[in-house]
Amino acid sequence: MISTRALACRYPGGVQLAFPDVNVPQGGTLVLRGPSGSGKSSWLALAAGLMAPASGEIVVAGQCLGALGPVQRDAWRARHVGFLPQRLYLSEALTVADNLALVYYAAGLPVDRAAVQAALQTLGVDGLAARRPAALSGGQAQRVALARTVLLAPRVILADEPTASLDDAAAQDALDLLQAAAQRHGATLVIATHDARVVQALPQAQQLALQAGGGS
Ligand code: ADP
Ligand code: MG
Question: What is the pLDDT averaged over residues 65-75?
Answer without folding.
Answer: 95
